[in-house]
Amino acid sequence: MRKWLLAACLVAGASPPVLAQEDDTVGAIQNDYYSTLNANSRKAQEAAKKTPQGIQLPLLTEAELQGFLERCWKIYDVSAGEPAEFEALNQVLVLAAAPYVQPTSDKTLQAWRDAAAKLFADYLDDDRMAALVINLPAPAKAKAEVDGYVKQLAGSKSVAVKAAAAFKPLSARADAAADAPLSPEAEAKLCADIEAFAAQHGAVAQVRGGTYAEWAKNTTHALKNLKIGGIAPEIEGPDLDGVNFKLSDYRGKVVLLDFWGYW
Amino acid sequence: MFPHERSLVAKLKDEPFALIGVNSDADLAAMKPKFKEEQITWRSFWCGEDATQGPIPRAWNVRGWPTLFLIDHTGTIRHKWVGSPSEETLDGAIDALVAEAKAAAKK
What we know:
The complex is a heterodimer of chains A (263) and B (107).
Chain A (H helix, E strand, L loop, with lengths): L1 H10 L14 H25 L11 H17 L4 H15 L8 H17 L5 H7 L8 H10 L6 H21 L4 H18 L10 H14 L10 E3 L5 E3 L7 E7 L3
Antiparallel strand pairs in A: 1-2
Helix pairs in contact in A: 2-3, 3-4, 4-5, 6-8, 7-8, 8-9, 8-10, 9-10
Chain B lengths: L1 H10 L5 E7 L4 H10 L6 E3 L8 H5 L7 E5 L5 E6 L4 H20 L1
């Protein structure tokens, strides 16, 4: 029924209904959200066919976005202390950070701020905050506030959350260093910071699998041995016909080393 | 990517240049006929059945495909691209390093 209603409103070009039904769930909001994006995308494609150089239809309108945000808040209001409360707040962050409605309106920005403030106050010690903080979705206008929130998590009683909060800025520095090589001093500092992090949080399971100790080992290795200007590590192994060869066989030639797959 | 790689290999066949692949297909036997179709003639290491999680991608910290490293004649890593670079970018970088390699060989 809900989906049918939404579809009918879309066809009529009206804003989506704000559904106060008690059976509304975050999962249903997600489904309706993606259906709306798909439907709007199809409409945009058809419009583009008719007027090749003409108008660009948005994938999501401000009214549609506000409708989805309101449904999240309705769930939040009736689910105190239940898993749905956290999910609803998380969904507000995701919706507010999505790039489809630009620029982000004051109303959307306020929704993000309200949800973030509640999450970081009420769920500081909750393990679920670990996964949330790693990919903390935020609209461009709120990016400056993210660092402050991440710092708050250092005071969490959850081991996973504390580790994730320390990991986030460190992994950003390591990613940046992979693109633009560091000075020897900056590299030594980063490696020392990674080692200190691993000493404290190494045993904790990483949100994306493996432990933080493994991440630290791989990242330090990459910083030291895979940087631009460093000597390429040796590769030795069979080619596709099973004949062994070495990367260093090609010393004296320029080598384009291509990590590829046909899939 | 394959058509440009084929043309690179053909264009630079008399130059101090080699295209070396690191193939991350898990089922090599099933894929081999496709490689022939695509005329993938350059030599590749194989990552093994663990494919993208195999020892070579792990040692090289590769987490996106394709990833390209351009290594000069001394074995020094000079460029890295995650995702395909534009043909101009790639060709320009290779040409510059091939010129360096030839100048070094003359000395």
